[in-house]
Amino acid sequence: MSNPVEPGVRKRVRDAISKLIWDQVTPWVYMNDDGVRVTSHDGQSLSFPDKESPGAKDLFWSGTYIEPFVTEICHQEIAATCRWADAQGVPRRQALSELRTELLAGFIRLYWTMADVHRQTWWKLPNGAVRRDTSGEVDRMMTFLDAALAKAANGAVASA
Q1: Residues 6+ apart with CB under 8 A from 63
Q2: How far is residue 17 CA from its own chain's centroid?
Q3: Is residue 4 situated within a structural domain?
Q4: Which domain of life is it from (predicted)?
Protein backbone atom coordinates (compact mmCIF):
# COMPACT_ATOMS: atom_id res chain seq x y z
CA MET A 1 0.00 0.00 0.00
CA SER A 2 1.35 3.42 -0.91
CA ASN A 3 1.74 6.28 1.52
CA PRO A 4 -1.34 8.43 1.79
CA VAL A 5 -1.30 11.69 -0.12
CA GLU A 6 -3.08 13.55 2.68
CA PRO A 7 -2.14 11.95 5.99
CA GLY A 8 -5.31 12.83 7.92
CA VAL A 9 -7.92 11.81 5.36
CA ARG A 10 -8.30 8.18 6.44
CA LYS A 11 -8.78 9.05 10.11
CA ARG A 12 -11.16 11.92 9.41
CA VAL A 13 -13.38 9.83 7.13
CA ARG A 14 -13.39 6.82 9.45
CA ASP A 15 -14.19 9.01 12.45
CA ALA A 16 -17.00 10.80 10.60
CA ILE A 17 -18.57 7.53 9.42
CA SER A 18 -18.20 5.99 12.90
CA LYS A 19 -19.96 8.98 14.46
CA LEU A 20 -22.71 8.79 11.85
CA ILE A 21 -23.24 5.09 12.53
CA TRP A 22 -23.25 5.67 16.29
CA ASP A 23 -25.64 8.62 16.19
CA GLN A 24 -28.02 7.64 13.38
CA VAL A 25 -27.90 3.85 12.91
CA THR A 26 -27.10 2.29 16.29
CA PRO A 27 -30.24 3.65 18.00
CA TRP A 28 -32.36 1.50 15.66
CA VAL A 29 -30.78 -1.66 17.13
CA TYR A 30 -32.70 -1.10 20.36
CA MET A 31 -35.99 -0.36 18.65
CA ASN A 32 -37.73 -3.53 19.85
CA ASP A 33 -37.02 -2.80 23.52
CA ASP A 34 -37.14 0.96 23.83
CA GLY A 35 -38.40 2.30 20.52
CA VAL A 36 -36.16 4.66 18.62
CA ARG A 37 -35.64 8.41 18.80
CA VAL A 38 -33.23 10.10 16.40
CA THR A 39 -32.75 13.56 14.97
CA SER A 40 -32.88 14.04 11.22
CA HIS A 41 -30.30 16.10 9.35
CA ASP A 42 -32.64 19.10 9.36
CA GLY A 43 -33.04 18.88 13.15
CA GLN A 44 -36.45 17.23 13.25
CA SER A 45 -36.96 14.74 16.08
CA LEU A 46 -38.10 11.34 14.78
CA SER A 47 -39.45 8.61 17.02
CA PHE A 48 -41.08 5.23 16.63
CA PRO A 49 -42.32 3.10 19.55
CA ASP A 50 -41.45 -0.25 17.94
CA LYS A 51 -40.40 -1.99 14.72
CA GLU A 52 -44.00 -2.37 13.55
CA SER A 53 -44.59 1.39 13.62
CA PRO A 54 -45.88 2.58 10.25
CA GLY A 55 -43.11 4.15 8.22
CA ALA A 56 -40.20 3.13 10.46
CA LYS A 57 -38.53 0.76 8.02
CA ASP A 58 -39.30 3.02 5.06
CA LEU A 59 -37.72 6.01 6.79
CA PHE A 60 -34.64 4.01 7.80
CA TRP A 61 -33.95 3.23 4.13
CA SER A 62 -35.24 6.43 2.56
CA GLY A 63 -32.67 8.61 0.90
CA THR A 64 -33.93 11.49 2.99
CA TYR A 65 -32.81 10.00 6.33
CA ILE A 66 -29.15 8.98 6.13
CA GLU A 67 -28.00 10.48 2.84
CA PRO A 68 -28.07 14.16 3.88
CA PHE A 69 -25.56 13.27 6.61
CA VAL A 70 -23.41 11.37 4.11
CA THR A 71 -23.44 14.17 1.55
CA GLU A 72 -22.43 16.64 4.25
CA ILE A 73 -19.44 14.45 5.14
CA CYS A 74 -18.52 14.29 1.46
CA HIS A 75 -18.68 18.07 1.02
CA GLN A 76 -16.64 18.69 4.18
CA GLU A 77 -13.97 16.17 3.23
CA ILE A 78 -13.74 17.36 -0.37
CA ALA A 79 -13.23 20.94 0.83
CA ALA A 80 -10.62 19.89 3.42
CA THR A 81 -8.77 17.75 0.88
CA CYS A 82 -8.74 20.54 -1.70
CA ARG A 83 -7.44 23.04 0.86
CA TRP A 84 -4.68 20.64 1.84
CA ALA A 85 -3.75 19.82 -1.76
CA ASP A 86 -3.64 23.50 -2.74
CA ALA A 87 -1.52 24.40 0.30
CA GLN A 88 0.91 21.52 -0.31
CA GLY A 89 1.14 21.93 -4.07
CA VAL A 90 -0.28 18.43 -4.60
CA PRO A 91 -2.52 17.95 -7.65
CA ARG A 92 -6.14 17.95 -6.52
CA ARG A 93 -6.94 14.90 -8.65
CA GLN A 94 -4.32 12.86 -6.81
CA ALA A 95 -5.55 13.91 -3.36
CA LEU A 96 -9.21 13.50 -4.32
CA SER A 97 -8.56 10.02 -5.70
CA GLU A 98 -7.41 8.91 -2.28
CA LEU A 99 -10.40 10.59 -0.66
CA ARG A 100 -12.69 8.71 -3.06
CA THR A 101 -11.21 5.41 -1.93
CA GLU A 102 -11.71 6.25 1.74
CA LEU A 103 -15.27 7.47 1.23
CA LEU A 104 -16.18 4.36 -0.77
CA ALA A 105 -14.95 2.23 2.13
CA GLY A 106 -17.03 4.40 4.48
CA PHE A 107 -20.17 4.04 2.34
CA ILE A 108 -19.78 0.27 2.26
CA ARG A 109 -19.26 0.15 6.04
CA LEU A 110 -22.25 2.42 6.70
CA TYR A 111 -24.68 0.56 4.48
CA TRP A 112 -23.39 -2.85 5.62
CA THR A 113 -24.10 -1.79 9.21
CA MET A 114 -27.55 -0.56 8.22
CA ALA A 115 -28.23 -3.89 6.48
CA ASP A 116 -27.19 -5.71 9.63
CA VAL A 117 -29.55 -3.59 11.74
CA HIS A 118 -32.31 -4.24 9.19
CA ARG A 119 -31.61 -7.99 9.28
CA GLN A 120 -31.85 -8.06 13.08
CA THR A 121 -34.82 -5.73 13.41
CA TRP A 122 -37.16 -6.55 10.54
CA TRP A 123 -36.55 -10.23 9.81
CA LYS A 124 -39.56 -12.39 9.00
CA LEU A 125 -40.30 -16.05 8.46
CA PRO A 126 -39.98 -18.07 6.27
CA ASN A 127 -36.78 -16.46 5.00
CA GLY A 128 -35.60 -15.41 8.44
CA ALA A 129 -32.73 -13.02 8.81
CA VAL A 130 -31.71 -12.26 5.24
CA ARG A 131 -29.20 -9.47 4.71
CA ARG A 132 -30.49 -6.66 2.51
CA ASP A 133 -28.50 -5.92 -0.65
CA THR A 134 -27.15 -2.38 -0.30
CA SER A 135 -25.32 -2.11 -3.61
CA GLY A 136 -27.96 0.32 -4.89
CA GLU A 137 -27.39 2.68 -1.97
CA VAL A 138 -23.61 2.53 -2.37
CA ASP A 139 -23.93 3.09 -6.14
CA ARG A 140 -26.19 6.10 -5.59
CA MET A 141 -23.71 7.68 -3.18
CA MET A 142 -20.79 6.95 -5.52
CA THR A 143 -22.61 8.68 -8.37
CA PHE A 144 -23.08 11.72 -6.15
CA LEU A 145 -19.46 11.57 -4.96
CA ASP A 146 -17.98 11.20 -8.43
CA ALA A 147 -19.87 14.28 -9.64
CA ALA A 148 -18.74 16.30 -6.61
CA LEU A 149 -15.13 15.13 -7.01
CA ALA A 150 -15.12 16.04 -10.71
CA LYS A 151 -16.25 19.58 -9.87
CA ALA A 152 -13.63 19.88 -7.13
CA ALA A 153 -10.84 18.55 -9.34
CA ASN A 154 -11.69 21.27 -11.85
CA GLY A 155 -11.47 23.99 -9.21
CA ALA A 156 -15.12 24.33 -8.18
CA VAL A 157 -14.30 23.97 -4.47
CA ALA A 158 -12.83 27.01 -2.77
CA SER A 159 -9.42 26.39 -1.27
CA ALA A 160 -9.71 29.08 1.41
Answers
A1: 140
A2: 6
A3: no
A4: Bacteria
Regarding predicted confidence, which is higher, 122 or 80? Answer: 80
Alpha-carbon span 34 to 102, nearest angstrom? 34
> Does a structural domain hold residue 160?
no
SS3 1: coil
Give the residue among 45, 44, 47, 9 at the shortest CA–CA distance from 28: 47
In this structure, are residues 82 and 152 in contact, taking their beta carbons and an 8 Å threshold? yes
- Tell me how many domains the chain contains: 1
**H or E element in which residue 146 lies:** helix 135-153
pTM exceeds 0.85, yes or no? yes
39 in a domain, yes or no? yes
C-alpha closest to that of 10 among 101, 89, 112, 114: 101
Give domain status of residue 159, yes or no: no
Domain assignment of residue 29, given as a range: 9-153
Helix (H) or strand (E) holding 53: none
